[in-house]
Amino acid sequence: MSTNDKHVLVIAEHDGQSLNASTARTVHCASRIEGEVHVAVLGKDIDSVAEEAAKIEGVNKVIAVSGDHLADPLAANLAPEIASLAEDYSHVLGPSTTFGKDVMPRVAALLGVNQVSDIMSVEGERQFKRPIYAGNAIVDVTVPDGVKVVATARAASWSQAEAGGSAEIEKRSATTEPPGHTRFVGLKAGGGERPDLQSAPRVVSGGRALGSSENFELVFKLADKLGAAVGASRAAVDAGYVPNDMQVGQTGKIISPELYMAFGISGAIQHITGIKDAGTIVAINKDPEAPIFEIADIGLVGDLFSIIPEIEEQL
Description:
Layout: E1 8-11, H1 21-30, E2 37-43, H2 47-54, E3 61-66, H3 75-86, E4 91-95, H4 98-111, E5 115-119, E6 121-124, E7 127-132, E8 137-142, E9 149-153, E10 168-173, E11 202-206, H5 217-226, E12 229-232, H6 234-238, E13 259-263, H7 269-275, E14 280-285, E15 298-301, H8 304-314
Parallel strand pairs: 1-2, 1-4, 2-3, 3-10, 4-9, 5-9, 11-12, 11-13, 13-14, 14-15
Antiparallel strand pairs: 6-7, 7-8
Helix pairs in contact: 3-4, 5-8
């Protein structure tokens, strides 16, 4: 098979047990490109993940690549294997999550092509739209004929492909060796048992107005009652209230939950970029002129330290 065969390879994001929702969103994007859609699941002991991928509607084939050095999500290990698989495809797509932003540029570099980032619309086999300038402008990108397309799909722009597929699963052994310059040390998640920020249907976020990491516990408590993930503005992260993996916005995570609640967040353009695709945006801020009220579906001017307890009482 050559790059002219117009088949799309989607790189699955998973935790070794189940798929991240970003995979089904990327499949939705891939389905808009002419050709079959194959999903690559890389890891170790990944049979259950491969079976889950095979059930996504629109997937024609799942390639399950197993290897000891693929057990952990280390881009230095994954990228060479993906680049090897990519030789048989015209397009290689990953999600624009932290995982995809880590892995896909390495894949593009190994293949000697430029990456198309954050595809929000497919206009043709090699024509895409993507946001620039913090989402203030949309640019048309065309990849020349004969050049392999390596891209990330902007997860917030695509709904999840439905379940109901029954793709075949092809099992392979890894063909690459781990590099000697990189090793996996560990993976820590700060969210505990809360939903993943990038795929959660409900997100509660706090800003600098909370004043301290201790006060941020108000946001955590409300999120737990709602079964929501927790996010934060860059100002809250920079102030040290929460770790940077909770940052929402242009330089953090771009999300599209059904419900987004912002407490004490003024609404800088960089933050708005990360949430504008949310279904319903609820903003609580004591400043009636806060920019976030311009895009909020529901706005409440008031003291968050009084309002959060009142909301909890109603739940």
